[in-house]
């Protein structure tokens, strides 16, 4: 591929990414823009404190750190409904040499759920990154939270790369509570056809029932009592289930939530460590995992 052809292709991809981002923001009824003023960044700090319910003595991030990151050229953005900030996202570059961006924290107000504000923010981040020659964005999420698994793997088309046990250590907020902070690291390869399709509103499909009919075995499922039930699954493709609302479980039954954390770590963590690939996530609560590439 000549340099001219490559440049034209990349220009078309960036234009398409920007258009998809604009359409998503319009659909959500919000405006998304980069932030750099002290007042705006202080508003991000307050927004995150409200979302994670941490209090002023333990903010997820400080305004002065965000100010330094913005000055250094990292990504810091806010989503606005009129004059009201309803979401914010920031990330920083990672090796090799600004070729990738690590998205550290993204959050939206609960009152905006159902409007696709988070989706619009990620598409804005993708367009911003692609316009700077970045081909990949990574971030972490809690693999026990069903809506987050669906959002990241299906709606955005990101790929799980690594299971990270207790990655952040203890976190003093009302979301994580006393639970270990296990995370899955995902990689969002921005120019792949699957990601392009997801950003155009065509999520990655995953059908657990079809996988089971094709021979997949269940490695982890919800028991009749609501706890984790681990099963032997020696098939090339396995199904890994998670509970419907682990965040509510952390409040009502923290011991059972801890059992789920350990079971998912043992099952999904071991699969990923052994080279398995997560094909997708069925929103009914199933990771579909291939121990080997599907034919």
From TrEMBL:
It comes from the Bacteria. This is GNAT family N-acetyltransferase. SUPFAM superfamilies: Acyl-CoA N-acyltransferases (Nat) (SSF55729). It comes from Nonomuraea spiralis.
